[in-house]
Write a structure and sequence with these properties.
The chain has 2 domains: 126 residues, no CATH class; 227 residues, no CATH class. The radius of gyration is 23 Å and the shape is elongated. The protein has 17 helices and 7 strands. By secondary structure, the protein is α/β, with parallel strands linked by helices. Helix 7 packs across helix 8, helix 12 crosses helix 13 and helix 14 crosses helix 16. Its main location: nucleus. InterPro entries: HARBI1-like (IPR045249), HARBI1_dom (IPR027806). It comes from Gadus morhua (Atlantic cod).
Length: 361
């Protein structure tokens, strides 16, 4: 419950249609029948009697839905006007969740709920997530210690979210896979939860370039993330205080607070380090897989602007977490290599070795 109190998620369904469509279309016959024949007033009410089907429809069960509604209702409520009766927060949340769960077009969802297409398209207006503080980072590191990688703060990677080519954007969003996309850069904890996300980078950027240009990358370089102070590895005080690190693949740079595998084909101790790193870094890949499986909007090409796509990704990351709650530029360039070598040494010593690594090697 403490986590839910920290969670601030606003899913606002904007009524832009009423600002741009002639007044004679405000009460189209289809829209006028919303309260009698719309999905919210019929199908959704029937689904309340079957929790399994309710969860299949919204990807949240009834208890989770009600809990989320209590959190976001004040932020998504609208006032009635002299011309129209406002759509309730509950119905707005239903429209939002159904779009995210299916990846259907806004028009398709709009017909189902008997609202205007542009009303359904205003999925997310504001999303806010607290950044971990030093105490929270320490909890994350403790969880990763149980996965045999001490002083780890998260697994980091980038995911391309495919969108339609934005007008007059040239090759900015064109990625190496031959599609147009924005990038979700994420740090994931040991329980597959997104702890840091940076969304909206151009698809043409590499993972390293995305990190460098992101607010997260800037905070990491300026040492403003609240990362805990260096501390010795368990039972290895002779190696000295070791920094807390994020784990990444070869696409990211090696820094004092970012560990990537040793390059090339390796044997012996370096291979053990790479194996231990890969064992933990899979958390972020699994989290991306869970996200795409839960919210099928990721299986489609998003036919929206990059800004709207960014809001959609933010919303799904927050919902993903909701369902799962119960470096320093002044250092010399060789410092990162020293950190990696010390971790490698520790993993190959009796103090840091675990039984499964030798079988895998």
């Amino acid at each position: 419950m403490a986590r839910n109190r920290q969670l601030a998620l606003a899913l606002a369904l904007a009524d832009d249609e009423e600002k741009h469509v002639p007044r004679r279309l405000w009460l189209h016959n289809i829209t006028r029948g919303r309260q009698q024949q719309g999905a919210y007033h019929n199908l959704v009410q029937e689904l309340r009697f079957d929790d399994a089907r309710f969860a299949a429809y919204f990807r949240l069960n009834k208890c989770q839905f009600e809990q989320l509604l209590r959190i976001v209702a004040p932020s998504i409520a609208k006032l009635d006007t002299k011309f129209t009766q406002a759509i309730s927060p509950e119905e707005r949340l239903c429209i939002c969740l159904r779009y995210l769960a299916t990846g259907d077009s806004f028009r398709s969802v709009a017909f189902c709920f008997r609202v205007g297409a542009s009303t359904a398209a205003g999925i997310v207006n504001e999303v806010c997530q607290p950044k971990p503080d030093a105490a929270e980072w320490r909890k994350i590191a403790a969880e990763f210690s149980h996965l045999d990688f001490p002083n780890c703060l998260g697994a980091m990677d980038g995911k391309h979210v495919v969108i339609e080519a934005p007008p007059s954007s040239g090759s900015l969003y064109y990625n190496y896979k031959g599609t147009f996309s924005i990038v979700l850069l994420a740090v994931v904890d040991a329980k597959y939860r997104f702890r840091v996300v940076d969304i909206g980078a151009y698809g043409r950027n590499s993972d390293g370039g995305t990190l460098s240009a992101s607010a997260f990358g800037t905070a990491l370089r300026q040492n403003t993330l609240g990362i805990p102070a260096d501390s010795p590895l368990p039972g290895a005080e002779h190696l000295g205080p070791m920094p807390h690190v994020f784990l990444a693949d070869e696409a990211f740079p090696l820094r004092q607070n970012i560990m990537r595998p040793y390059p090339g084909h390796n044997t012996g101790e370096k291979n053990v380090f790479n194996l231990r790193l890969s064992h933990v870094r899979r958390m972020v890949e699994c989290a991306f897989g869970i996200l795409a499986s839960q919210w099928r909007v990721y299986r489609r090409v998003l036919g929206v602007s990059p800004k709207v796509a960014e809001n959609i990704v933010k919303a799904t990351c927050m919902l993903h977490n909701f369902l799962r709650w119960d470096g320093n530029p002044g250092l010399p360039g060789g410092a990162a290599h020293v950190v990696r070598d010390k971790l490698c040494q520790y993993f190959n010593s009796p103090l840091g070795s675990v039984q499964w690594q030798n079988r895998m090697v």
